[in-house]
Amino acid sequence: MPMPAHATYAGGDGDITFLDVESDRGGAGFTDLVRIDPKGRRLGSIVKCSNAQDEQPTTPCASSAGSFSRSGARFAFAIDGRLAVSAADGTSRVFLDKQTDQDGDPVWTRGDKLVFTGRRGGRSNVYVVDANGAGLRQLTKGGGTAPAYSVTGLVAYAAGGHVHLVKPDGSGHRRLARGTRPDFSPSGRTVVFEWRGRLYSKPVRKGAKARLAARAGGDPVFSPSGKRILYVGPGGEAEALYTVDPKGKLRRKIYDPRTQTAVEVEDISGPAWRPRR
Prior knowledge:
- By secondary structure, this protein is mostly beta strands.
- The protein has one domain: Neuraminidase.
- The protein is 0% helix and 53% strand.
- The protein has a five-stranded mixed sheet with strand order 1-13-14-15-16, with no helix packed on it.
- Strand 10 and strand 11 (123-130) form a beta hairpin.
- The radius of gyration is 17 Å and the shape is globular.
- The two termini are 32 Å apart.
- The model has no long low-confidence stretch (mean pLDDT 87).
């Protein structure tokens, strides 16, 4: 399953994107980066492809979810293991030179850089590169996936069943909690993450972790306003998108693919929330 990419910056709650694996009645498969509004209305696709067995893809398939820049004007994602940068709606797309054997999960920093998961020699680690593809630097050496970036300058990532924190220069490394798929609050003071199919939050500094939702869920991401946490949860026959408040209350389903599309949705992952200025 493609991993999520998370970077939450303060602002109003704009559009949402997520990776959507679908199939039609003829068996054709689609891996799309879908865009919805904050109320869950489907707006279209940033990336749409067809990977039916008897056809060549009309466009390459998205291979990881993406993230929005601090201004909300740009979007970074991966197609076929290669990083790409575009306008927020997917237009004006520019591909970066391939950085590792498999690039994915790009996250914008405060500057014009991307933190991402790269794979070399069969091992994944976290890397940093300029948004134009220059200045590649390896941030972790002991493994790492699913990076998230904080406005305070910290990077969170998952490795060995734990969420780790590190500064962008590779210093100050420490283990935060058992878990995967972290994301920072807009203030950078709290990290949300998934552990054994449940959602938790934990302060970056001192404090115990807290369970956020009574039901199963994954891929948590803060809204730019910090008032909601978006996540993927079970929705009957298919996965759906839900929100809860930072205290784990006011759970609400905002997107159910069965009511929005005629094709069968097999998997939803990697939601990202665009800051609205």
